């Protein structure tokens, strides 16, 4: 599907477009103003965790619902590296993001370099897309680091480069949709 044919949700329309893709809230933009959709803006990501903001549009998620995207292991464990997102933003990402909407998508395996910016690579996150991915919706989530709860606005949450990766632990799902993104598995 051509990116221009996918309607952009209202929450994402405030962002500039780059080759048809909204340069959303957590996209990393280098010193020359060029966005890199394969890299997240880590301070914005932490801010979204701290303030309960949608990781795509940056708007307050309030009491939810909270949408997450992940592969079978994430879904089974209720643990997600990305998110939370509003449902409309997550649905848009599932359809529009080249990595998510392609069954053999890959993340950047080469760590980009940018003057004046620190690029962090999480070694324990695979750069190969799982064979199938789901969009799940939960009524609640909490943020953990190394198995411990990270309290929103707490000192740990503001330390983006230290002490391991933030993970969203999601409560009971009200929706678990395996069909919105293509699968490379035989059906
Ligand atoms: Zn959003």
* Physical arrangement of strands within the biggest beta sheet: 6-10-8-9
The termini sit apart by 22 Å
Question: What is the string of helix and strand elements?
Answer: EEEEHEHEHHEEEEE
Continuous helix count? 4
Chemical compounds bound to the protein: zinc ion
Work out the helicity level.
10-25%
Beta-strand level of the residues, as a percent range?
A: 15-25%
Main pleated sheet: 4 strands, antiparallel
Low-pLDDT residue intervals, each spanning 5 or more residues: 153-158
- Please state the CA-atom Rg, rounded to the nearest Å: 16 Å
Secondary structure class reads alpha+beta
Mean residue pLDDT: 83
Q: What would the principal axes of the Cα set say about the shape?
A: globular
Summed up, the domain count is 1
DSSP strand count? 11
Can you walk me through this structure?
This protein is an alpha+beta fold. It starts with 16 loop residues before the first strand and ends in a 10-residue tail after the last strand. The radius of gyration is 16 Å and the shape is globular. It has one domain (3-107, 128-177). The strands form four sheets. A four-stranded antiparallel beta sheet has the order 6-10-8-9. It has a three-stranded antiparallel beta sheet with strand order 5-7-11. A two-stranded antiparallel ribbon has the order 1-2. The protein has four helices and eleven strands. A hairpin with a 5-residue loop joins strand 3 and strand 4 (35-40). The model is unreliable at 153-158 (pLDDT under 50). Zinc ion binds next to loops.
């Amino acid at each position: 599907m051509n990116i221009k044919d996918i309607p952009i949700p209202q929450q994402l329309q405030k962002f500039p477009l780059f080759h048809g893709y909204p340069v959303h809230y957590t996209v990393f933009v280098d010193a020359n103003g060029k966005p890199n959709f394969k890299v997240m803006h880590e301070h914005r990501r932490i801010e979204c965790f701290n303030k309960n903001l949608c990781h795509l549009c940056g708007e307050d998620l309030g009491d939810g619902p909270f949408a997450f995207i992940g592969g079978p292991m994430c879904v089974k464990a209720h643990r997600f590296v990305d998110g939370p997102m509003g449902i409309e933003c997550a649905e848009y990402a599932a359809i529009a993001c080249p990595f998510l909407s392609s069954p053999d998508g890959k993340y950047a395996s080469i760590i980009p370099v940018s003057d004046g910016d620190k690029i962090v690579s999480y070694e324990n996150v695979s750069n190969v897309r799982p064979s199938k991915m789901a969009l799940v919706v939960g009524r609640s989530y909490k943020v953990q680091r190394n198995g411990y709860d990270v309290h929103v606005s707490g000192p740990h949450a503001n330390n983006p480069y230290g002490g391991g990766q933030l993970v969203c632990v999601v409560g009971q799902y009200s929706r678990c949709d395996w069909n919105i993104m293509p699968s490379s598995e035989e059906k």
